[in-house]
Amino acid sequence: MLRQHEASADAPAGMEGLQNRWYNSVVQSLNLTSAAFQLLQPSFVVPLTNLGLWRYGQEIPQRSLTANAYDMSLERFFDIYASVIGQLSFPESSFREDIGDDTYEAWTAYLATLHPQPSAQQLPSLFLVWAMTNAPTVANVGQQDLAEMVLIGSAQAALEPYVGPNGQPADFGGSYAQLVQSLAHGIAKSFRFDSKTASGDVSGSWTGGVDTIDNGLWNGAVPGNRQSLLFSQSHVQASVTVSGLITWPLTPGPWYNSSMIATAYANPCTPPWPDPAQPAWDAVFGADGSLPRVMASLAAAKGIDITVTSDAVYSPLDQAIIETFAPLGLWPFYLPSGMAQTTVSFGESSGMTIRTVSTPGVPVVLGGNVQPIRAFLGAGAG
Questions:
Q1: Taking the CA atoms of the chain, what radius of gyration do you get in angstroms?
Q2: Which residues make beta-bridge pairs with 358?
Q3: What is the C-alpha separation between 161 and 206, in angstroms, rounded?
Q4: Is residue 41 within 8 Å of 333, Cβ to Cβ?
Q5: Cα 48 from Cα 68, distance rounded (Å)
Q6: Rounded to whole angstroms, how far apart are CA atoms 92 and 120?
Q7: How many whole angstroms from its chain centre is CA 133?
Q8: How many other CB atoms are there within 10 angstroms of residue 105's CB atom?
Q9: Residue 182 region by backbone torsions, left for phi larger than 0, else alpha for psi between -120 and 50, else beta
Q10: Which residue in 374, 380, 371, 66 sits closest to 202, CA to CA?
Q11: Which residue from 36, 19, 10 is spatially nearest to 205, judged by alpha carbons?
Q12: Separation between Cα atoms, residue 210 and residue 376, nearest integer Å
């Protein structure tokens, strides 16, 4: 777990430095892990529907400790998955080559004597029993080939209802209504943030310290504008209460076959990949592939209540600008008007206080837990 300590002198300055300290405080205070957690800002942009919730499972997370929830990735998990599974094949000719022509002829002759004919699902175990007597040297490879044929067929059949212009939406386990029910039984957490004492060291996180900051003091503000820089360089403190906190798994629905995609990942050869493959293994799973990681679960809450104070000195013009843009949402959750009530006030000579209270009944998605595709497919950390 990350330990709070005096900020180091060489830590990033500006909004990035402040955001790194906020990230560490959230991870520590909410019992999350920097080995996987990604903050989402704004913290809630989901329509109150199943598709709005499932959208998070479709996102391909960027390598950043903070992600802009409005900046949706162009590629979707389902689309990439379907493009891989839809092209896989294990030709009968490959099975014949693996077990040899003579064994293949004997096997097909044996099958012709069976009434009724066995199903495709029965063939792998049936071949293993037959081959242990008739062709023991190829019993295992033949059984494995037939099992892979069955796996490909099953995975492609599961995809059929979801593809094409009339395909149904790619679903994930759990509905929006079930999320709301779960939030009612979540836990409450309160913590304090202090920019002077919170650690800004995120080098040990899952990104190695990479954090792309898109927003300044308000949602849409350039991180380097005057108001944002004054804020980030000031002494920022916050009192935070998160209610109904849960971890919500993003489990792909019936369209997804974990065994088949894991097999495709572990075997970049032909078969099961066609030659040429489109997309090829490297284009999906390689170092610069389209599926480097997935969002495996969400950290969601029933509500948040945060009071942020800053000792920054703002001119009357700066104060007016901040008040104008406050309805767009202010740091650190950037919840817009309608999803939260945000008020901002200024001291006579210095200081600013921001209070943000999320709208009752509107779930807040604080962030998610990211898994490398290798780990997600059960191939170990990587």
A1: 27
A2: 340
A3: 36
A4: yes
A5: 19
A6: 13
A7: 49
A8: 11
A9: alpha
A10: 66
A11: 36
A12: 21
Cβ-contact 38, 370 below 8 angstroms: yes
Distance in Å from the first CA to the final CA of the chain? 21
pLDDT reported for residue 75? 86
Strands (E), the chain: 37-41, 66-68, 187-194, 236-249, 293-301, 303-310, 340-346, 352-358, 364-372
Between strands 303-310 and 236-249, the pairing is antiparallel
In 10 A of CB 330, how many CB atoms? 29
Report the alpha-carbon distance of residue 181 to residue 63 in Å, rounded.
32
Residues in the chain: 382
Question: For residue 34, which of 209, 198, 197 has the smallest C-alpha distance?
Answer: 209
What average pLDDT does the segment 73-94 reach? 94
- B/e letters for 49-58, b = 16+ CB within 10 Å, e = fewer, are ebeebbbbbb
Structure tokens at 88: 């896989």
Helix (H) or strand (E) holding 95: helix 92-99
pLDDT tens digits for 94-145? Answer: 999 999 999 999 999 999 999 999 999 999 999 999 999 999 999 999 999 9
Closest Cα to residue 218, out of 313, 323, 129, 67? 323
Distances, alpha carbon 51 to alpha carbons 9, 35, 95, 339, in Å: 45, 28, 41, 18
